[in-house]
Specification:
Elements (H helix, E strand, L loop, with lengths): L2 E3 L8 E3 L22 H11 L4 H8 L3 H15 L4 H9 L6
Antiparallel strand pairs: 1-2
Helix pairs in contact: 1-3, 1-4, 2-3, 3-4
C-alpha cells in the first residue's frame, strides 16, 4: 500500500512510502555497474582517494598537472559525476584491492 499526500487541491501527487513499504524489493543492495576505466584512470582515482592534490599526483606518476586534469575530466564524464568526492564514492566499491 502506498499513502498519497496532497499539497493542495489540483496539484501533482507525491507518493510517500508507508512503513509497510519499508524493505520491499531491497533484500539485496545492488551497486550499478562501473564504466570501464583505463589502468591509468584507476591509478588516478586511487591517488585522489588517498587525498592527493593534482600536483602531487602529477609528481608521483611523472606526468604534468594538465594531464592529471585531463584524466580527471574523462573519468568524471565516464562516471557521470561532478566532483572528486563523487568520483571516489562511485568507484570505491568496485576497485579491487581497496
Amino acid at each position: 500500500m502506498r499513502a498519497r499526500r496532497h499539497a493542495h487541491a489540483g496539484s501533482a501527487r507525491a507518493e510517500v512510502p508507508t512503513p509497510a513499504d519499508h524493505g520491499r524489493g531491497l533484500s539485496r543492495l545492488q551497486v550499478p555497474a562501473l564504466p570501464a576505466l583505463s589502468p591509468r584512470e584507476i591509478e588516478i582515482v586511487r591517488l585522489v582517494a588517498k587525498g592527493y592534490p593534482n600536483k602531487t599526483i602529477a609528481g608521483i606518476l611523472e606526468i604534468s598537472t594538465w594531464t592529471v586534469a585531463a584524466h580527471l575530466r574523462r573519468i568524471f564524464l565516464k562516471l557521470g559525476v561532478r566532483s572528486r568526492a563523487a568520483m571516489v564514492a562511485r568507484t570505491l566499491a568496485h576497485l579491487p584491492g581497496r
